[in-house]
Amino acid sequence: MAAYLLRRLLLIIPTLIGIMLVSFAIIQFAPGGPVEQILAKLSGVDVSATSRIGGASSDLSGGGLRPGGGDQSSVPARYRGAQGLDPQFIKQLEAQFGFDKPAPERFGLMIWNFARFDFGKSYFRDTPVLKLIAEKLPVSMSLGLWMTLLTYAISIPLGIRKALKDGSAFDVWTSAVIVIGYAIPGFLFAILLIVLFAGGSFFDWFPLRGLWSDNWANLPWYGKALDYMWHLALPLTAMAIGAFTTTTLLTKNSFLDEIRKQYVMTARMKGLDDRQVLYGHVFRNAMLILIAGFPGAFIHAFFTGALLIETIFSLDGLGLLGFESVVNRDYAVVFATLYIFSLLGLVVNLISDLTYTWVDPRIDFDRREV
């Protein structure tokens, strides 16, 4: 196990570099850039993520930023709308964002800084990237963490029950319900919930903005907990409408596969009742795939950004931050979040493998090629 763990840890380094290299190369061909964003704003054109993109802003987005090329003695043609601006000012902007250096040098410097967890500041918010992520994290954590726990708490018992009642009326109608729920877009269901229960056209039972009320700090601890869950009720319901299908059916199929194996028949022949067979023998083997995947789902829940849900319910989380960063070409935030999430994903995959050995000691990864 130690040799396998060491190999996997060493493999994280080239994998991370590969992910960042491909993303960095794609960005070089993307139209626009942070310098163009600033020049567009100085020209009186709103190019933010929340603005309506019209003809003027599309004119400014033509031609990507290519540091190191073109005539440096005059305003490059790619900066449309920058006529009248001092060419020296444009050079200073390029130097400020690091675009005065060749692409390979910029990539190497980025990897060196990221390896030391130095992610710099956002281009347009003048805030350290880590601080910006930390500010948005509570919203995404609230949605992702509760959604993950809720999904497992409902899907696993339901999947086990469906496996035991395979082919019955209960199995059929519950399958129909979760499949229909899976087919309903979460954002459309969110709009329906707002219309029905958040002051849209019928009832005004739930709030429509934020994670807590204005007087939250003055509430007792139980009042704070109730207020917090009151604000999360509609967003979680909208996200949950299709969240149970995959885990429920995976649980059902896993238990069915184990129930039909020979060792279950042997256990029953020894006189064990169904409950002893289910929880003494079947449960551990059937839950292997779900338990091993739980660390990944749990960690992923902390960094899940549901863009549409966050926007509809006015929740400023990582989903909205990522969308605005991409549209506004805030590369400092884009690459930093990509690096952090990729690193977490690789580490979590390793933790999932280790969880396999914890659940079933018979699994030996030392005999397995990475």
Automatic annotation (TrEMBL):
- Give all residue intervals belonging to the ABC transmembrane type-1 domain: 137-352
- One Pfam family here: BPD_transp_1
Q: Name one GO biological process term.
A: transmembrane transport
**UniProt cross-references to PROSITE patterns, sorted A to Z:** ABC_TM1 (PS50928)
Superkingdom, natural source: Bacteria
Protein's recorded name: Microcin ABC transporter permease
**What InterPro entries is this protein classified in?**
MetI-like, MetI-like_sf
Query: Where does the record place the region Disordered?
Result: 58-77
Coiled-coil region(s) at which residues? Answer: none
Family indicated by similarity: Belongs to the binding-protein-dependent transport system permease family.
Gene3D superfamilies hit by this protein: MetI-like (1.10.3720.10)
Q: How is the protein disposed in the membrane?
A: Multi-pass membrane protein
* Compartments in which it is found: Cell inner membrane; Cell membrane
Q: Which UniProt keywords apply?
A: Cell inner membrane, Cell membrane, Membrane, Transmembrane, Transmembrane helix, Transport
Which segments show compositional bias classed as Gly residues?
61-71
Kindly list the residue ranges recorded as spanning the membrane. 9-30, 139-160, 172-198, 228-251, 288-313, 333-359
Primary site of residence: membrane
A GO CC annotation given for this chain: plasma membrane
Organism of provenance = Candidatus Raskinella chloraquaticus
